[in-house]
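Handout for the seminar on molecular recognition.
Each group receives one record of this type.
Step one: identify the two inputs.
Step two: read the structure output and locate the region that could contact flavin-adenine dinucleotide.
Step three: write two sentences on what you found, then compare them with the reference statements printed after the record.
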Amino acid sequence: MAILVLAEHDNQQLKPGVTNAVAAAQKIGGEIHLLVAGSACSGAASAAAQVAGVAKILVADAPHYAGGSPENLAPLLVGIAKNYSHLLASASAYGKNVMPRVAALLDVAQISEIISVESPDTFVRPIYAGNAFATVQSTDAIKVITVRATGFDAVAATGGAAAIENIAVAADSGQSKILKQELTKSDRPELVAAKRIVSGGRGMGDGDKYRQVLEPLADKLGAALGASRAAVDAGFVPNDYQVGQTGKIVAPELYIAVGISGAIQHLAGMKDSKVIVAINKDPEAPIFQVADYGLVGDLFTLVPELTAAL
Amino acid sequence: MKILVPVKRVVDYNVKVRVKADQSGVELTNIKMSMNPFDEISIEEAIKLREAGVATEIIAVSIGVTQCQETLRTALAMGADRAILVETVADVQPLAVAKLLKAICEKESPQLVILGKQAIDDDSNQTGQMLAALLDWPQATFASKVTVTSGMAEVMREIDGGMETIEIKLPAIITTDLRLNTPRYATLPNIMKAKKKPLDVMTPETLGVDVTPRLKTLKVVEPPKRKGGVIVTDVAALIDKLKNEAKVI
Ligand SMILES: Cc1cc2nc3c(=O)[nH]c(=O)nc-3n(C[C@H](O)[C@H](O)[C@H](O)COP(=O)(O)OP(=O)(O)OC[C@H]3O[C@@H](n4cnc5c(N)ncnc54)[C@H](O)[C@@H]3O)c2cc1C
Ligand SMILES: Cc1cc2nc3c(=O)[nH]c(=O)nc-3n(C[C@H](O)[C@H](O)[C@H](O)COP(=O)(O)OP(=O)(O)OC[C@H]3O[C@@H](n4cnc5c(N)ncnc54)[C@H](O)[C@@H]3O)c2cc1C
C-alpha cells in the first residue's frame, strides 16, 4: 500500500523536514504521495511535485487550511487514510500538532520522532532526552509517524515529476482562529536545516553581547544561530532559537557551543552533530565530554579572535 | 469553571537514566521520581486562572502506579483542590491515557484541560492532541501565554519560526511550554493541608477503558557514545583542526 507524507510549507515552498520524511518513507517502501494542504498553495504543490521519489501530490486548497490548524487538517487526513499503510510528517511543531490528533481519530498509536526504520512496522525512537533508544513495533493497521529529520538524509528536492491531483476539502471546523503570527525574520539558514550552527548560552551575559559576539562569527561561517534554554529564558534571543530536548533537534556538520554548560537537555538536541566545538571558561563543563574540540577560556576574547582568524 | 490538570510521575530531570542490561527498558528502581516539569507549569497556570477568578476548581489527575499519589499530593500542595488517581500497573501509552482522560472529562465536565506539551521520560508529545481529538475539542499546543475570557481562550504558542496567537472556543485543550510561567514551590503548611484534600482512586476497568498497548517495545538500548575529543591550546590550533582534521571549514 502507499505511504502518505503530510508536507509542511508556507504556501510557496516546502519546509526543510519534508524531504527527510520522504526519505523515511522510502525506507519503509511503497508508493509515496505528498499531501499539500494550504490556502493558495499551488507554489508549494509545484515544489512538492519536484521532490525525488514521489509519485503523486494531493492538494487541498482552502482558506481554512492556511495556518495548518489541526482541527481542520486531522479530519482531512482521516478522510483519505484508508488508502494508506503509513501516514508520516516531520517532527516539527506543525507535525507534532497534527499527527497525534489524526492517530486518535483513527484509534491507532502515534509513533513520535523515529530516527530509523527497521521494517514497515518496527521503528527506533529516542526516549529520555536521547539517553536511550527504544525499538518499537506497531500492531495497528495504519501507522501514524513523525520523523526526526536528523535521522534520515534528505532526498533531492528537485528532479521528480509527480502528478498533481486536487482533492475534496473538508468543512471548516470553526473551532480555532489564528489572530497573529510573529515570525523571527532572518537571512540566515533555518536552524534545523543549517550545515553550521553557532549557539550561545547563559555565558553570553545578555542579548546585546550575544549579538555582538556571535553574529560576526555566524556571518563568517554562513551559520545559523542557536541557543540554550537559559539564553532564551533570559530573553537574549527568541524562543525559536532553542536547541534541546524540548526545543529543536539539530545535527549540522559543525556546531559551535559558546558559553553553554552542556546539560543533558541541551545535549539531547545537538549531540548528533558531526563536529562539535565548545568554548567555555570552565574546564569541567560537561559540554567538553561531547565536544571534538574544546577551547577553555573567556569567550569574549576567544570568539572575536576566532572570527578574525577565519 | 473547572480545570483538569493531568500530572505524570516521571524520572526526575536531573537523573541520567541507565538502560537495563536485559534491554527491557531503563533502570527505575531507587531512582528519584518527580512530577513532569511541564505539568508543574500546567498546575501553576490553573492556579493563576483560579486566582484571577476564571476558574473555580482545579482537579489533578494521574495515571499509573500507587506511588503516583505522591505526585498528586505535590499538585495538591501547590494548590489543586482535589485529585484523581487512575491506578494501573499497565504500560499506559498516550492513546490509552487520552481515553482515560476523556472518560474523566465526561464525568467532570471541565472547560479546560491543561497538559504538559511532553513528558520528559517518553518524550511523546501526543497526549493533549489525542485527547482533543477524542473529545472533538480545539487544541492550543506549546502555550507560552494564556488569556481566558467568556467562552474563549487566547493562546500564544511557540512554533518553529517564532510565535503565533490563536483564539479557541471552550471547552478546549491547552498544552504548556517552558516559558508560560514559573511554577511556585509548595510551602510546608500547604504540604500539610494537601494531606487532607480529597484523592479518589479509580481503575481503567471502572472507567470502562481498554488500555492494551498498541506499541510493543522490542528493546531499549544505549545510544552510540560520542568519544570525548581534545582540548586545543588556542584559536590557531582550533582552526588547524577544523581545516585539516575535521575538514568542516
Ligand atoms: C523540562 C526541562 C526541559 C529543558 N529543555 C531544554 C532544552 O530544550 N534546551 C536547553 O538548552 N536546555 C533545556 N533545559 C535546561 C537545562 O537543564 C539547562 O538549565 C540549560 O541548558 C543551561 O543553559 P546554559 O548552558 O546556557 O547555562 P549554564 O548551565 O548556566 O551554563 C553557562 C556556561 O557558560 C560558561 N561561561 C560563563 N561565562 C563565560 C565566559 N565569559 N566565557 C566562557 N564561558 C563562560 C559557564 O562556565 C557555564 O558552563 C531544560 C530543563 C528542563 C527542566
Ligand atoms: C508500568 C509502565 C511501564 C512502561 N513501560 C514502558 C516501556 O517499556 N517503554 C516505553 O517506551 N514506555 C514505557 N512506559 C511509558 C509509557 O509508554 C508512557 O507513559 C506513555 O507512552 C505516555 O507517553 P508520554 O508520557 O511521553 O506522553 P506525552 O504525550 O509526552 O505526555 C504529555 C502530557 O500528557 C499527560 N500525561 C501523560 N501520561 C500521563 C499519566 N500517566 N498520568 C497523567 N497525565 C499524563 C501529562 O500532562 C503530560 O505532560 C511505561 C509506563 C508505565 C506506567
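Reference statements: Residues 44 and 169 of chain B are 22 Å apart (CA to CA). Chain B touches chain A through 76 residues (CB under 8 Å).
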